[in-house]
Specification:
The protein is built from four helices and no strands. It is an all-alpha fold and about 80 residues long.
């Protein structure tokens, strides 16, 4: 019988798992505000403040600092 050893590199798998966990934690970490507010600002978080994920306080401060660059929808959240 021909038995072949299948070698699987765990590095890509670990990287994918890490990315998945980061995205999941980012989604749940940004659970402050209403669903509408989160929908309005989530794209701006990824565009302007991705380095702050999953720290909600740092994300909020980052968005406030970059208010001039926010989308209209997200800017309206911060003007409420």
């Amino acid at each position: 019988m021909d038995e072949r050893v299948v070698r699987i590199s765990l590095r890509p798998l670990a990287a994918m798992l890490g990315l998945l966990l980061t995205l999941l934690s980012a989604s749940s970490a940004f659970a402050i505000g209403t669903p509408e507010q989160r929908r309005a600002c989530t794209p701006d978080v990824y565009r302007l403040c991705a380095g702050e994920i999953p720290n909600v306080r740092a994300i909020t401060e980052c968005l406030r600092r970059r208010k001039a660059s926010l989308s209209e929808a997200c800017r309206a959240v911060f003007e409420q």
